Amino acid sequence: MAKVVAVTGNEAVANALRQANPDVCAAYPITPQTDIMQRFSGFVADGLVNTELILVESEHSAMSACVGASAGGGRVITATSSQGLALMWEILFIAAGDRLPIVMPLVNRALSAPLNIHGDHSDGMGARDSGWIQLWSENAQEAYDNTLQAFRIAEHMDIRLPVMVCLDGFIISHSIERIEYLEDDAVKNFIGEFKQLNPLLDVEHPVSYGPLILPDLYMEYKRAQHEVMTKVSKVVLDVAADFEKISGRRYGLFEPYRLDDADIALVILNSAAGTAKDAVDQFRDRGIRAGLVKPRLFRPFPYQEIADALKSAKAICVMDRADSFGGFGPMYMEIASAMMMNGKKPILINKIYGLGGRDFLPEHAELVLSELADVAKSGKARTFKEYIGVRE
Amino acid sequence: MDYLSKKYLRSRKIPSTACSGCGLGLNHKAVVQAVYELGLEVEDVVWGTSIGCAGRQTFGTWKGDGFAGTHGRVYAIARGLRLTLPPEKKIILTVGDGDAFGIGLLHLIHASRCNADMTIIVNDNLGYMSTGGQYGWTTPHGSKTDSSPYGMYEHNLMSDGMDVLGVLKHAGATFLARHVAMDGQRAVESIKKGIQNRGLSLIHMVFPCPTNFGSRELGTRDTVKIYEWIENQAAPLGQEKENTVWATGVYFDASNSRPEFSESIRKNVETIRRTAAL
Asked: Is A337 among the domain residues?
């Protein structure tokens, strides 16, 4: 039986980590993630998990310790935010290249400079090409559910890749919401025992992790890394189907919202999607066929599936809570690529919103939908990239 | 607002965002007092800060030039800055214990090795207090913190006879001192010596955090209790008692005893230019 509780996003994620009972956790504090690792260290101190906790001196060391422990053959976790992820950057690629199934909640926070501690997606988007699987979460419930599913995806014998579970800093990490926790036994059965693959500690079968490969083989290695990514979508869906059996909650590669006959559509990640759904409902009430896509699996990106879901839309706005200065927002570039799949060319515009924790309000979503309705009618975009909710 | 604040600090940043009862202001007061007593003006100093309590309260507070580095990198930034600044300009860095003795220790060791001219004030609130109070690299043994609810038992840089100042001494720093926030003029004198040393100077200054350290370790946010707790465990060097954790005063003074980093580079590059067959 599920237990209904009122907890913060961080608390929910920490509880998921407790239920997964990892072998090793390397932790270093950074706002707004600290709460997760601090709560987890409490579980370790109280003997509620069988975890070796290593408190390291930097995030670079945290991810390095995770790599060592994972290659050693354990279930391994850490968590971070913003500058912490940026400092881990070098090792993120090692974890993925070595095919190590590390699970890491990422509490999204803006990157310096200037320093800012509030929620935006520039940290996670910066790790886009690191080879990690990325799951994004709208609310605390999704963050909890994604964290549990992340272990199954990462540790799947066809995958063996690290997984990042993203949730919005402060907006979700520090807000109390109604959550349904699964029973410990149900989680234990769902995730299962950790199975080792090529562990360093198996002295009978020595293996090497990460040595030099020159031009003669490097490209084959990277090609293989792409190949395994092509298998991830199926595993994510299989794991989601199993998860639905124990939780009653259904997950896909993304969430389509009132999209079937939509003329205009938003593509938007994480917590702001919840706000935007209300605006979509309002437009539907007024007889305007509006819809929304909320991506969940961002790496690997489900191009074909999202292109199919958006097939009826004449005008689409991709909302990015991160920017590529001098380019379009990172999500816009993915959707633009996806739109090439079916050879259809809806008008695609990009809005940058909510950087550094700037509020995203229902009015913002309404303005964007109104603009989209005009674009769909006129067949012309006023501008392709624009910042909203900003003082010009 | 007192005269020193008006002279050296931006009035809109005062009062600071520090918690009620925080001792950080005592440390900063000592730094500004030292700057004043040395007759330095706003334009003589470039002030650098990092992250956490020690960084947050000082961002953009110095009236003159300043920078906010990422966590642990200020020493590397300051080394670069040292090469481009006129030698008479002072670099003062106010950082935290996690920054200097944790995430940035390698940079600090290398800045010490090459004796780069900068004065570093390590404001030590005994752990990671701005993220909620996790123990760090100077947390006294046995202290209850958020991440050590049953007492801190790890080896760190201030336990089992280890002393982070010893590490820095052997790494090549030329002036090292330790104080607690209540040391007043004694701390000011050490900081003045540090600034006058043309080389790497570091003053380790413990300060009380009632909000996150005091509340866990002492079970109260009573400001007086954490001030007493620190003061009772501090004593001047040579007058240590059995329970002394922080022996205060000048730990090591080799001021102006060996070439400074930027000076040495300039001199050697000049020699190479003159003698090399170009």
From this structure: yes
Statement to judge: residues A23 and A170 lie in one domain: yes
Number of domains into which chain B is organized: 1
pLDDT: which is higher, A226 or A1: A226
Task: Please check whether residues A112 and A233 belong to one and the same domain.
Answer: yes
pLDDT mean over B248-253:
98
**Number of domains within chain A:** 2
Confidence of residue A62 (pLDDT cuts 50, 70, 90): very high
pLDDT for position B275: 87
Torsion of CA B138, B140, B144, B147, to 10 degrees: 30
- The ipTM (two decimal places) reads 0.89
Q: What residues in A contact B72, CB-CB < 8 Å?
A: 58
pTM, full prediction: 0.94
DSSP class per residue in A124-172? HHHTGGGS-EEEE-SSHHHHHHHHHHHHHHHH-TTT---EEEEEETTTT
A222 shares its domain with A143: yes
Decide: A175 and A12 in contact? Cβ < 8 Å: no
Written as one letter, the residue type at A250 is: R
- Whether the Cβ atoms of residue A171 and residue A133 lie closer than 8 Å to each other: no
B78-109 tens-digit pLDDT:
999 999 999 999 999 999 999 999 999 999 99
Query: How many Å separate Cα B237 from the centre of its chain?
Result: 19
Interface of B with A in 131-160 (CB under 8 A): 131-132, 134-135, 137, 146-150, 154
Residue A34 to residue B105, Cβ atoms within 8 A = no
Q: How far is CA B102 from CA A87, A91, A177, B95, B137, in A?
A: 14, 19, 35, 11, 6
pLDDT reported for residue B56: 78
